[in-house]
Design goal:
Blueprint: H1 23-49, H2 66-87, H3 106-133, H4 142-168, H5 177-186, H6 193-215, H7 217-226, H8 229-232, H9 236-260, E1 272-273, H10 277-284, H11 310-314, H12 319-343, E2 351-352, H13 367-380, H14 390-421, H15 423-435, H16 439-450
Antiparallel strand pairs: 1-2
Helix pairs in contact: 1-2, 1-7, 1-12, 2-7, 2-9, 3-4, 3-5, 4-6, 5-6, 6-9, 7-9, 9-12, 10-14, 12-13, 13-14, 14-15, 15-16
Length: about 475
Amino acid sequence: MSAETPIPAVATKSEPPESDVSAGVGLAGLLGLVGWIAFCRAFPLISETFGFSGEFSPERGVLSGPYSALAALLFVAGPMAVWSILVDKVHLRPSTGINWSLKRSIADVIPVSSVKIMGIWATYAVLAGLYGLGRWYWDGSYLFAMEVLSAAVIPIVVLAVPYIVWIDRFMINPKDASWHFGAMIFGRDEWDSEQVKKHWRAWLIKGFFGAFMISILPGGFAFVVEADPSVVFSNPVEIAGLMITVLFMIDVMIGTVGYLFTLRPLDAHIRSGNPFLGGWIAALICYPPFVWGIIGNNSQIIGYENGTAKWDYWMADSEMLLLFWGAWLVVLTAIYAWATVAFGIRFSNLTYRGVLTNGPYRYTRHPAYLSKNLYWWCLHLPFLVTSGSPAEAIRNCFFLLIVNAIYYWRARTEEAHMLAEDSKYREYYDWMEYNGIITAPLARAKRRLLGRNGERGGPAEEAAPEPAE
């Protein structure tokens, strides 16, 4: 090991730096979700017991519709917000940028707040225009998201006014990125172009991923609420399928709350969006509309499912193997969902909203990416094809490796972003390099392979992509 690059002091500690998100936040949201699902499944019995009629009669059946899925967000967000404030007291953290003792008068903040309100309203208008231009938003599952956002736009526009005025009374520096965008619209000299870019990076992330997450809420929720135990527990494939769907549904619910509730008093605001162009490309290529026709599902570009039949086809003759393999897929999905739950109310792609060091992030810096990519290999078994063609199997494996590389690219750009933003993340990065159960062996092998001590090379690694300007 090179004497010129000593092991960082933080790497010798027994624990990583303290996480900005406690384990209780995600658990509170998870319990709220479980309670709401139990209510939706038991609704016919509840309505019969209390003699409800009409719209709430037992004949209506379980509450599995899209608006029940939407209501679930409140049962997830509410407990997480309560825990964050009452237990973790996040509203008192310096990272919120709030000083509750300031209590400026409304008259004092109106000059700043009015500019910020104009910036936010203009942002809503631009996002609405982008939704209108995107054809994919007006077809398929996205129609539900557009219906929800169309209904929400007036309340959001109206409520933005009292919220901004209220929060500006306590903000240490109320002239944030939104204010700079508003100042640009008003033609004021004080606006900063870097702050405007920061504003739009955050809002494009919220707009793009928020609509996507809302669009996929109803499907998994309905499947879970309507599941018939007598059918599900009839064979191991059905059991694994239900459990995997439940876990993905949890991921979607917690993730959607993360995108929608970026509130400063909860310390859940977006502190910065990823400034690297490579980070945006690597992330967006994995989601609609960019992913359609590019990755998976027999795509002619990066298709890794051509001629495959998934795991249950190949193991149909062995119930024991079906049980084992199904359980393994459930474990991988559980790790993926756990990684989202651990974020609590702060989950979102391409953003910096604090540093997470507990849960599965105690073992690897990227548990969601690791488990997701392993899941695809174990689910599709791309090296097995029904045609028996070695060429097709090789193609499938090659292109799934390409997908794995895309996620590695995403991980590297996210690390570069976080390393540049937060000294705590730099400490976490160094601690994991030598102590992470999964990360440390990989880092050690990399150091041996490259013949160096794995130094970071500064806040953002020298190999990081160029910023998107």
